[in-house]
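Lecture 7 notes: from sequence to structure.
We start with the chain below.
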Amino acid sequence: VPATGQERRGRAATSRRARTARRIALLLLLAGCSTLGPPPMEPLTETTLATARERWEARGSDTYRLVVRVRPPRAKPEEYAVKVAGAALVEVVRNGTSLGHDEATRHDYSMSGLFALLHEDLRWTAVDPVGDVPAVDVRAHFDPETGRLVRYRRTVGTGRRRVLFVEVLAYEPAATLQLSSYTEAPCDSHD
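Predicted structure tokens for the same chain:
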């Protein structure tokens, strides 16, 4: 039985509403993807750093594994796998190669090492601005629960900017690790 004109118009209206609903859903999805990225980094201050460090000392683990990506200015990114046991640096692996004791302590990207880096970089914020642009801009995002560093960016200069970007790609506290892999001699740390 062929459809009547009224039935055809009803199906066409339903089809238009469905297309409109799909378009709206797609627009909402695209808008959400552009605004739901990683949380923004906030300017790093002595207060935010002290708060994060206190939270880490109260809620963080003293035995953990970190994977940290460091993108220095005008150089290739480096990836560090860091093992810490009992708050002591145990092992540092850079781009798949284990570092010796002396080199590991120079590349301490444990949480205490990262907090030390941020503390050192804060002294650059005292440098006078160039015009209305600060000579150094330091920004960080910390995990709200544990206080651990998630991302850090230091931008130096105005014209030819030099940017250091540090990002913690993975954090595994002791509860998820097999502690038998932490029997090596510890390296010196920034504690």
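Points to note: The beta strands are 42-43, 64-71, 78-85, 88-94, 97-98, 136-142, 149-156, 162-173. The longest strand covers residues 162-173.
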